[in-house]
Amino acid sequence: MKVLFVCSANRFRSVIAAACFKDLLEKKKPDGNWEVSSAGTWAIEGLPPLSQAISIAAKLGLNIDQVRSREVDANLLQEADLVLVMSNGQKEALTLDFPQEKDRIFLCSEVCENQAYSIPDPVEDVMDQTPEELGEEICRLVNKGFDEICELAVNLHKKRFPER
User: I want to staple 95 with a disulfide (CB 3.0 to 4.6 A). Which of 76, 78, 102, 146 is the partner?
Assistant: First the structure.
């Protein structure tokens, strides 16, 4: 199963979410072969995560030092069984640009909490929370929705590849 987390620049939200999900996969060891990655809708290729993201991830026990940003494209979306975006705008943009993939694109909040809301961008949005609180919130969300993410990814994979 391939899960792709997407935000804007691929330097904070999607990187932390992907690292948190990978960590949970290692701890919980669900059945199947899992691949987890991240990308951004407006990413500049090859940039490291924001320094704040690296330090927040480290406090959460996650290492994202080696991650480099990349822009989401048709190949990444086509390969992914499940695409989890951070904002309504990202979901709308991806479903408009890649309508053939729309059935596999979901808001992270929608899958994890059964509520559709955008997770704010610490660089672009005025937030009620600090970047540290946002990083913790993203991990809390992924932790809470881990089983739902896995189940949805498996079901979407089976739908795409019924013979496997």
Answer: 102
Fold of 2-160: Rossmann fold (3.40.50)
Tokens of 10: 């691929």
Residue 15's Cβ-count burial label (10 Å; 0-12, 13-18, 19+) is buried
Query: What pTM value is reported for the model?
Result: 0.96
Nearest to 17 by CA among 118, 105, 98, 137: 137
Pairing of strands 35-40, 82-85: unpaired
Q: Can you name the residues that pair with 4 across neighbouring β-strands? A: 37, 83
